[in-house]
Amino acid sequence: MPVRKNKMVAIKWASKSEFDSMVDSRARRVLNISAKQFINRWKQGRYRTLDSDTCPGVIELAILAPLPRKKRARKNTKRSSGHIRKVSARKSALPK
């Protein structure tokens, strides 16, 4: 059997300007509008009822674009440790 060599894959990090141009070119290709127009329309709610079958590529554009996201973080609540605390009743001091 021939020996398989592992191929090294290089990762290139995109700068903000490169990322903005990627989003802009994708928006122009999919919707014929700029990325800024897409983001403004997204914020206005114009794409809520849009079906991905009628306009393919919008879902990928929505994932790629820096859109406002809803925060789904938990509120500061105490987590239980899983243990059940026993509450001991205090013995009342009876007068002797």
Tell me what the structure shows.
Helix content is about 35%, strand content about 0%. The protein contains three helices and no strands.
List keywords for this structure.
3 helices; 96 residues; single chain; elongated; mainly alpha
How would you summarize this macromolecular structure in one to three sentences?
It is built from 3 helices and no strands.
Q: Approximately how much helix is present in the residues?
A: 25-40%
Q: What does the largest sheet look like?
A: none
Q: Please give the count of helices.
A: 3
* Backbone CA Rg: 28 Å
Structural class: mainly alpha
Strand content: under 5%
* Anisotropy-based shape: elongated
Mean pLDDT: 77
Count of β-strands: 0
Could you spell the SSE succession in H and E letters? HHH
Distance from N terminus to C terminus (CA atoms, Å) equals: 93 Å
List the uncertain runs. none
Write the layout of secondary structure elements.
Elements: H1 16-31, H2 35-44, H3 58-64
